[in-house]
């Protein structure tokens, strides 16, 4: 187990460097930050001078080697726009991002599992249809629609909650609900499908008039198997919330990592893009590791090696 | 610090579940409720302003965005009065000594908020650090005509330009010419200065929570009197509809960049009003690459001007959020010569001109558009529909804004493209048209030797009458030559709480010191 | 009780097949059903609410008009074509690639698993907006490019979910037996693993549809792909964004249309599954 985790951490390091490398090159395909940092009136000579002082006029290979060298010493560079440590900028935004993602995933998991269990239990009944209709509606309405409508109802009309910003518990309610709306459907559907499968397995075994103990064993094993996809979906959706909550963050002016990345991309703030994707990929890899360990806990036959 | 540690712990899902809960409940209780609390006494007026963007730095010499926030911390030598006229700021007077030399007499007895004295050396330092090629100041081009600044005595400076520059007083009104304290700036260095700025302005910097807000407090010793608003928070609320909602919900007192669709919400609100600034935004046009067929023929360009019903676009698509204009220069700009006669909507004439130019059956072309302008895709689609009526097939291509910003200056946009321009930096015709009409400029797709000569002369002449005359001539010539489809200039809208007196300005500045409480 | 449920289960098949057939016919033959040209603007009739007169000749607009006076019903019918087409292609491509990767990773485990899953982690951490911008900057816009971005961002979900199921499937006795007997890996995966993951794949595919429709529209806003006047459901939803409280029908109706399609597809999937289990 310990060896496994250590091995995975080693892999993680390689994967993070892989992500950094890919981003390093594709962001450079997307355009020139010098042009974007200067006002439209700036002349070509001024742009060239800035490009040179930023070091972006050097051969790509040289830039990459230097980047790797700095990376190994823990230096992720400085943001071109904010003129300070790119890593610090990303880490400063992390608490807000984690807060929002945790609240949202709690809502999505609670509602999703409940809906999934209910609709599996009352399969093909009225309740099943109503619940399914509802979750597909929340999944198909775009995030901004839900966010704007929630603001109009609960902030502008009822004055119960603030419209935006990160100022304590009451300000997280609306963005968390908005962010939770989409993943409810995948969680509930996966849960429903898995549960039905298990229930059917149990039924099949009964019909074959086998012993009670074996039926229970299969049911238990079946449920465990069935939970694996659910856990996977939850971890995937949680991962998306870490860096992909851009629309929610924008609507509620929530100062999270998603917005930071998008701004950095549109400014071509190379160091900041690289640093944020490095951090995000590290989080994803840890999340996958945690998920794989949970698999093992759920179903010990899945070997950890 | 505690927070940081907590999030590292929460890297695994389970830990995150518990850690997340505890961070939220403790997040910044201090930041809560500034705007929603009513001003108890007039002496303690605190307001919040909702803007679309956070700042990326607070050093006026090195901004990559506009100076709305920093202009409250710093002063310029020259300011603008109520009607946008130039009035004394940190300079009490200015005059031209010779063709290339301007003299500024400085205000005496002014200090920076850290106690440093304001004097000629400070002016010299502030300008030189921007002009130094090694510092790569983003807005260096705004002052690139300046050769050097000389301190004549404690309170007199001479600004010497490379060539005659009539715009020197205007340039000393806007960034990057704000005056910074030399000692402090040297001591902390450029990057630190951008985090903790110190100026002579009506407000002092308090805090900057990146991505969220900037807080300033009144400077009690301000040379022009302590402002009424004691504390101001600039919040960034990127989503336009949320910005308006937060105004209606009483969370902020002023919002900028209200979108045209949201105007009625503010107008019908019981606690806020709409402040309209006509023609304060970009002058939007459709540009042609005039060296590419078929747009190298002026007849084609004129035809397309006749084919567009600009009034219908302004009235129906923009719902009156812009003003139709054929003028390249705004009414508040130096060089404005009234509204010239342009092209009326006349599809028949358009067809006739197209036939004369050899395109009786029209042609097809791509029109690039970009989200910088209100309802850009709607406007482009209506233009496409109207041009279709005269036989010109348009494919509308919406380009991502950061890509567009690199495409257009390198001439890689489509042969027809939407672009807007504004002169808010100097309120002068030169800023309004030089960069988009002078051949060889990166945003220009037009070449007319005669116009070029006039633009160059107007840029370097200090004779106001002569300049006025030149701009009038350029204007008439350009309308005739039609290197673009003339459309409209956008209005700007602000939402203002009923408890405040304030209105938006054409120069887009947001001077908090001019905001006062409404007395009932 | 059991009988009633089964009856409903049967009705589900009829309803879902019927609904999908109606959607298919309405969108594919949109020109026959659309009351007017979906591109035709009328600046005199902008933002006419549903069931209101317009055009000045007493005609009624069933579902209202948009901000350029175009008929929403006609745009919905035409818009379904491109939206459904793009999302089906994108889901199919990402589903096939993702499932193959997921099965291989789960089945072989070890180094292959580590490599493929770390690749998935890397993929997830690269925002689709960045990919879209790079695409626009390097290749320009085009339908093909949008499908590529969608597929490239979509495969991870399939791979991860399928892999998780394969992890437990391969521990099943019959799989182990087959392997012990020396059945080639590809055959084991095709015969014993793939069939047991099909429903999981189908469930994920149905779930990804709406995501793809909306993402395609978001990417079009970045200038990748669809021409702005071309009606698509996702594009209509986006266009209505600034009118959510003043002209609700603009983004709500296409949102409902997407929900309806997704619901029908899922019902159909459920019905297929019920049938397979009944046999």
Structure report:
The complex is a heterotrimer of chains A (305), B (520) and C (279). With 305 residues, chain A is mostly helical. Chain A contains twelve helices and no strands. Chain A has helices at residues 2-29, 33-37, 44-54, 60-72, 86-121, 126-140, 143-157, 169-207, 212-243, 246-251, 257-267, 270-298. The model of chain A has no long low-confidence stretch (mean pLDDT 86). Chain B has helices spanning 2-9, 13-26, 120-131, 168-171, 182-195, 240-248, 263-267, 298-307, 310-317, 347-356, 376-388, 401-407, 429-437, 449-460, 464-481, and strands at residues 45-51, 78-80, 86-88, 91-98, 101-106, 146-153, 156-161, 203-209, 213-218, 229-236, 254-255, 272-277, 283-288, 322-324, 364-370, 393-399, 416-421, 484-490, 492-497, 500-501, 516-517. In chain B, β2 (78-80) and β3 form a beta hairpin. In chain B, α1 packs antiparallel against α2 (13-26) and α8 runs antiparallel to α10. Chain C is mainly alpha-helical and 279 residues long. Chain C has ten helices and two strands; from the N terminus they run ααββαααααααα. Chain C has helices spanning 2-28, 30-33, 72-108, 110-125, 128-139, 143-169, 173-180, 185-221, 233-239, 249-278, and strands at residues 52-54, 59-61. In chain C, α4 packs antiparallel against α6 (143-169). The longest helix of chain C is centred in the N-terminal third of the chain and has 37 residues, at 72-108. The mean pLDDT of chain C is 85. Chains in contact: A-B, A-C, B-C. The interface between B and C is medium-sized, with 29 and 26 residues. Chain A: This is ABC transporter permease. Chain A: It comes from Saccharibacillus sacchari. Chain B: It comes from Saccharibacillus sacchari.
What name is given to the CATH topology of the largest domain in chain B?
D-Maltodextrin-Binding Protein, domain 2
Sheet with the most strands, sense and barrel status of chain B: 7 strands, mixed
Number of strands of chain B: 21
**SSE string of chain C, helix = H, strand = E?**
HHEEHHHHHHHH
Average pLDDT taken over every residue of chain B: 88
Class per helix and strand makeup of chain C: mainly alpha
Radius of gyration of chain B: 25 Å
Helical content of chain B (DSSP H or I, runs of 4+): 25-40%
Organism (chain B): Saccharibacillus sacchari
Protein name (chain B): ABC transporter substrate-binding protein
Protein name (chain C): ABC transporter permease
Organism (chain C): Saccharibacillus sacchari
């Amino acid at each position: 187990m310990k060896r496994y985790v250590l091995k995975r951490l080693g892999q993680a390091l390689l994967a993070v460097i892989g992500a950094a490398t890919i981003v390093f090159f594709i962001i450079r395909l997307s355009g020139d930050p010098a042009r974007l940092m200067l006002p439209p009136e700036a002349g070509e000579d001024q742009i060239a001078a800035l490009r040179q002082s930023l070091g972006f006029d050097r051969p790509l290979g040289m830039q990459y080697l230097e980047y790797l060298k700095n990376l190994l010493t823990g230096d992720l560079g400085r943001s071109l726009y904010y003129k300070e440590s790119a890593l610090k900028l990303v880490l400063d935004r992390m608490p807000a991002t984690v807060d929002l993602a945790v609240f949202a995933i709690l809502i999505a998991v609670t509602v999703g599992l409940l809906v999934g269990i209910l609709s599996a239990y009352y399969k093909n009944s009225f309740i099943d249809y109503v619940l399914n209709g509802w979750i597909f509606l929340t999944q198909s309405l775009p995030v901004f629609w839900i966010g704007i409508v929630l603001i109009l109802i609960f902030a502008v009309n009822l004055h119960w909650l603030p419209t935006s910003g990160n100022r304590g518990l009451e300000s997280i309610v609306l963005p968390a609900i908005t962010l939770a709306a989409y993943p409810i459907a995948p969680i509930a559907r996966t849960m429903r499908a898995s549960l039905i499968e298990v229930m059917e397995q149990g039924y099949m075994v009964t019909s074959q008039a086998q012993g009670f103990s074996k039926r229970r064993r299969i049911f238990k094993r079946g449920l465990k198997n069935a939970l694996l996809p659910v856990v996977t979906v939850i971890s995937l959706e949680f991962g998306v919330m870490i860096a992909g909550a851009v629309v929610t963050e924008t609507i509620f002016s929530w100062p999270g990592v998603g917005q930071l990345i998008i701004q950095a991309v549109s400014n071509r703030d190379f160091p900041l893009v690289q640093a944020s994707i490095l951090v995000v990929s590290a989080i994803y890899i840890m999340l996958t590791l945690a998920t794989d360990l949970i698999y093992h806990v759920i179903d010990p036959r899945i070997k950890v090696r | 610090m505690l927070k940081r540690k907590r999030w590292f712990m929460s890297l695994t899902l389970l830990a995150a579940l518990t850690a997340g809960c505890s961070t939220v409940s403790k997040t910044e209780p201090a930041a809560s409720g500034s705007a929603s609390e009513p001003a108890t006494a007039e002496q303690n007026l605190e307001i919040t302003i909702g803007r679309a963007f956070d700042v990326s730095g607070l050093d006026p010499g090195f901004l990559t965005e506009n100076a709305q926030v920093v202009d409250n911390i710093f002063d310029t030598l020259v300011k603008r009065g109520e009607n946008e006229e130039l009035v004394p700021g940190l300079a009490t007077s200015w005059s031209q000594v010779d063709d290339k030399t301007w003299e500024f007499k400085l205000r005496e007895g002014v200090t920076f908020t850290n106690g440093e004295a304001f004097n000629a050396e400070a002016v010299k330092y502030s300008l030189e650090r921007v002009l130094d090629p090694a510092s790569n100041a983003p807005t260096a081009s705004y002052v690139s005509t300046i050769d050097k600044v000389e301190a004549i005595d404690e309170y007199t400076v001479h600004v010497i330009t490379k060539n005659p520059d009539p715009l020197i007083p205007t340039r000393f009104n806007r960034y990057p010419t704000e005056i910074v304290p030399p000692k402090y700036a040297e001591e902390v260095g450029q990057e630190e200065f951008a985090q903790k700025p110190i100026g002579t302005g009506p407000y002092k910097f308090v805090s900057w929570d990146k991505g969220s807000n900037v807080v300033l407090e009144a400077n009690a010793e301000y040379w022009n009197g302590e402002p009424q608003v004691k504390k101001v928070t600039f919040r960034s609320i990127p989503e336009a509809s949320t910005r308006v909602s937060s105004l209606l919900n009483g969370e902020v007192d002023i919002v900028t960049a209200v979108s045209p669709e949201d105007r009625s919400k503010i107008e019908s609100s019981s606690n806020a009003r709409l402040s309209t600034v006509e023609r304060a935004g970009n002058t939007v046009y459709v540009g042609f690459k005039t060296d590419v067929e078929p747009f190298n023929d002026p007849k084609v360009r004129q035809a397309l001007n006749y084919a567009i019903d600009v009034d219908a676009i302004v009235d129906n698509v923009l719902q009156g959020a812009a003003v139709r204009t054929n003028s390249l220069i705004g009414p508040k700009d130096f060089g404005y010569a009234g509204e010239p006669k342009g092209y009326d909507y006349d599809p028949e004439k358009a067809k006739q001109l197209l036939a004369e130019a050899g395109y009786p059956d029209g042609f097809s072309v791509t029109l690039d558009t970009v989200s910088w302008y209100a309802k850009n895709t709607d406007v482009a689609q209506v233009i496409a529909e109207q041009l279709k009526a005269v036989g010109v097939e348009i494919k509308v291509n919406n380009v991502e804004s950061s890509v567009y910003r690199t495409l257009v200056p390198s001439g890689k946009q489509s042969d027809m493209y939407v672009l807007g321009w504004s002169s808010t930096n100097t309120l002068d015709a030169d800023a309004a048209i030089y960069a988009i009409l002078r051949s060889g400029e990166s945003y220009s797709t037009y070449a007319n030797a005669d116009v070029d000569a006039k633009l160059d002369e107007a840029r370097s002449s200090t004779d106001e009458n002569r300049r006025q005359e030149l701009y009038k001539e350029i204007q008439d010539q350009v309308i005739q030559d039609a290197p673009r489809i003339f459309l409209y200039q956008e209005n700007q809208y602000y939402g203002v709480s009923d408890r405040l007196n304030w209105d938006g300005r054409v120069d887009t500045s947001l001077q908090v010191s001019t905001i006062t409480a409404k007395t009932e | 009780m059991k009988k009633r449920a089964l009856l409903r289960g049967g009705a589900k098949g009829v309803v879902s097949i019927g609904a999908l057939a109606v959607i298919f016919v309405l969108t594919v033959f949109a020109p026959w059903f659309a009351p007017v040209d979906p591109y035709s603007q009328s600046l005199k009739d902008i933002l006419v609410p549903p069931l209101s007169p317009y055009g000045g000749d007493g005609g009624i607009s069933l579902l209202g008009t948009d901000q350029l006076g175009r008929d929403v019903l006609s745009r919905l019918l035409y818009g379904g074509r491109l939206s459904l087409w793009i999302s089906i292609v994108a889901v199919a491509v990402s589903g096939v690639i993702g499932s193959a990767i997921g099965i291989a990773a789960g089945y072989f485990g070890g180094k292959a698993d580590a490599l493929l899953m770390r690749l998935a982690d890397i993929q997830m951490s690269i925002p689709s907006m960045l990919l879209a911008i790079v695409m626009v900057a390097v290749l320009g816009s085009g339908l093909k490019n949008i499908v590529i971005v969608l597929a490239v961002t979509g495969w991870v979900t399939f791979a991860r979910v399928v892999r998780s199921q394969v992890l437990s499937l391969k521990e099943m006795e019959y799989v182990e037996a087959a392997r012990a007997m020396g059945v080639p890996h590809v055959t084991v995966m095709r015969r014993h693993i793939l069939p047991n993951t099909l429903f999981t794949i189908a469930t994920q595919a149905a779930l990804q549809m709406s995501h793809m429709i909306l993402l395609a529209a978001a990417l079009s806003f970045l200038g990748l792909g669809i021409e702005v006047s071309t009606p698509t459901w996702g594009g209509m939803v986006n266009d209505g964004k600034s009118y959510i409280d003043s002209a609700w029908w603009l983004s709500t109706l296409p949102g409902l249309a997407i929900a309806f399609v997704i619901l029908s597809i899922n019902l159909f999937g459920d019905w297929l599954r019920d049938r397979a289990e009944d046999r």
